[in-house]
Amino acid sequence: GIQVEQSPPDLILQEGANSTLRCNFSDSVNNLQWFHQNPWGQLINLFYIPSGTKQNGRLSATTVATERYSLLYISSSQTTDSGVYFCAVETGGGNKLTFGTGTQLKVEL
Amino acid sequence: EPEVTQTPSHQVTQMGQEVILRCVPISNHLYFYWYRQILGQKVEFLVSFYNNEISEKSEIFDDQFSVERPDGSNFTLKIRSTKLEDSAMYFCASSAAGAYGYTFGSGTRLTVV
User: Quick one: CATH architecture of A4-108?
Assistant: First the structure.
């Protein structure tokens, strides 16, 4: 099956810093999504981004499908950004998502 | 904003017991899913459900697991005889057209003792 690797696995930032999270995948995908799992365990859908670039406030994401990677940018980080960021890809036609290994982000004051 | 509702939020059960995890998907969504996350690990797909039947299932989803949509609003996951390794967070999700608008519930933390 498809492999989805994320980097870095862990990241500590000072509040206000910027960061880039990366997601590499081993095969062609129909779509890619980014999720934030907050400290309470909830999975929040950030972006549906099979290709191109999208922005939502301080977050933006870019997927280069031909090169099999996606990037999530967090600008001016806040403590509420802490948690685990997952990318998830869909292959085939069944809407099944294969999640990446995650990036654990901690934003400190 | 529409949300996927899961109950209970926590459940503790003895090994060998049956459990039923319940979910109310978003009302106009057509695709329903169960995922699980063992503590500290990534989220894993269990099963997808469309048009009142299973459309895909993973290797994890063996004969101990079953899903049902008993009425027009609920979607359930049953584990017939729980094992210690079934302890995990179980997430229900739903989507409208294909994988667009995937929305996850808050999860049920299942602990098997």
Answer: Sandwich (2.60)
